[in-house]
Amino acid sequence: xxxxxxxxxxxxxxxxxxxxxxxxxxxxxxxxxxxxxxxxxxxxxxxxxxxxxxxxxxxxxxxxxxxxxx
Length: 70
Known about the structure:
The protein has about 70 residues and is mostly helical. The protein has four helices and two strands. Strands 1-2 form a two-stranded parallel sheet. The longest helix is centred in the middle third of the chain and has 11 residues, at about 30-40. It is globular. It starts with a strand and ends with a strand.
């Protein structure tokens, strides 16, 4: 599971604590890239370029799913 969330959410350990309780491995991707996607695109209503999504996916290795949680 990849957790894509703001730096504040990651620091609050919001999703990690529940995944750990269930013994689910998670990946925290490049936070600078995540913040760019969230603030430069999602929150401004712009479409995230395909290249950025591909970069994100490649940087995460083997993942079954993504949590998109700001």
